[in-house]
Amino acid sequence: MLSGGDMLIRSLQEEGVELIFGYPGGAALHIYDAIFRQDKVKHILVRHEQAATHAADGYTRATGRVGTVLVTSGPGATNAITGIATAHMDSIPMVVISGQVFAEKIGEDAFQETDMMGISRPIVKHSFMVKHASEIPEIVKKAYHIAATGRPGPVVIDVPKNTVNPAETFPFEYPKKIKLRSYSPATKGHSGQIKKAVGMLQQAKRPVIYSGGGVVQGEASELLIELARKLNFPVTSTLMGLGAFPGDDAQFLGMLGMHGTFEANTAMHHSDLILAVGARFDDRVTNTTGKFCPNAKIIHIDIDPASISKTIVADVPIVGAVDSVLRDMLDILKSSSKKTDKKALADWWAQIEDWRERHGINVKPRYNTSGDKIMPQDVIKMLYEVTKGDAIVASDVGQHQMFAAQYYPFKRPRQWLNSGGLGTMGFGLPAAMGAAFAFRDKDIVCVTGEGSIQMCIQELSTLTQYGLPVKIICLNNQALGMVKQWQDMVYDSRYSEIHYEDSLPDFVKLMDAYGHVGIRVKKREELREKMEQCFALKDRVVFLDVYVDPSEHVYPMQVAPEGSMRDMWLSKTERT
Amino acid sequence: MRRIISVLMENEPGALSRVVGLFSQRGYNIETLTVAPTEDATLSRLTVTTIGDEHKIEQITKNLNKLIDVVKLVDLTEGSHIERELMMVKLKASGAQRAEIKRCVDIFRGQIIDVTNTVYTVQITGASDKLDAFMDAVGDAAILEVVRTGVSGISRGEKVLSL
Fold it and tell me: Do B25 and A305 touch (CB under 8 A)?
């Protein structure tokens, strides 16, 4: 016989949950008492509920395991909202348990009452409110199942305090199976459609594989590589998909979209066949949808039928798990007597190499390398060198995020953790923290800016408490850089509210206050030494505060509105 | 184009708000909405009429299907179907108007369900355009109050929406 609170924690144990990221409070006290009375599930005390959700999210992105969050009612629940929305936009599985006031008080504006079911509704995959303690095991089982399967996403369990009352106990049995009559996500793709798609792949003359976050989430990286190798097709990736195809591979064109490479965006525009794998034709990818890749036929593989033909109509839609569909495609290709058009592909590759040579950012630097200012691109390149390209890199949101995506070629999936869909500043540090719990032996880096870092900077204290030696690389340009870039380019350099008027904290002293190490870098020639010093301090949190050229912009940048994929600014003055 | 989408969903608290929320969240229109439990107490049937092009309707049905509480749905307008809406109208009815309105109600095969010295309350059932036509026929000047249930629909023949 167990109380609701004990059942809840026992159920998490049964699910194999190792870590709960959370913050206690009144309505969650019974649950916290149940945590105290066991030692299988470890609770991580963050400093703000937003960070609990981002940390769980970072842990999930880095490991593939479902993250778990526990918050109290009212402000605890509302603080978690940004992190839930972040996970929802990027299809990250997560279970968020929120305390709730006593059931009989619901609707009476009780202390710390908020309608969590209502507030979270548009940003969750599903949500449950516990009506009786005896329902808890089944609800937990369903929550983890729903969060992790199909197109993954966050699930909220709202737990009124009376349902976890320690004085009332019930028999506990964790269900082995659950029945959900209305939920059966697709697994295998339609064989006829797959056959048709393979036929088109074999005939393509100017194909591009456009890979997305679904390849990472769907554990299909190896299959994607195998397919791309077999076909000798160029591969581009969304921001979310980076790492699923090796970033330093000759077949990789770099990221596509708003800040994608010239060769990726131009190849997409001129392609005759796009194989979209686990990507969703997001507006940061397509630019103006009416002008999107005019001559391309589109094969779209996605586990979510609603993603298909949402913004760009697919010629061959394939609903299914990406790994299963790619495996089926490979099987057909292997047994097929037909060959790809080698001559056409050779011409296509020659054309792509020409584009790459002309404007590719990885062939040679396309930014000013002769000044005395530190260029943000060089910081990321140095980071790549010093970490041997092997670090797990979490990022915040802004220019630094784009520089990291462009100049740190990720080798493997789950190496790059960033808020792509929602674009949540403050995501980086807690996400890095979540990953650090799972990978004690790897370099864990948070690439950030002096703007973003201040949105969840309180977690420096959590890093101290749990001894997590995260390295924070701050591209400090003394302004909200991405906003500045837009104001420069679109608002005639009218800089509205992007400067801090000399009020930035002294990050070196701040680090000292938290018991960490802060290193300031202002001179170009010091960059290597200080970066090496940063990573030599294995067991310490180090904040590398790098003063970068404040006038530098991220290029290429697609021309918007009304631009097509290939319309890009390549520098302040140069346009395609 | 106007569509009638019929949805079988879990008869659970919050299920309706997920459906309605989806429409406002994604900027879809709701023209009418009706919902009530079915012969199976665990299921509710919701009927929504909405307006949109083919692409929009496809997105609506896909996104409705994604809701965990939605068990099954059908776009009734894709096949032959019957739709009905019930309307009660309170009409000014005195003197010569009384006979006139009575005739009009008979033509539309409605019923006068409540009578006072000066007012008739009329009940009419039919497709939405028939109810509109009745209101046109009696004229705005006569109408005191209107209440409509919104559209319910069912497909013709053997086809059923069930588990």
Answer: no
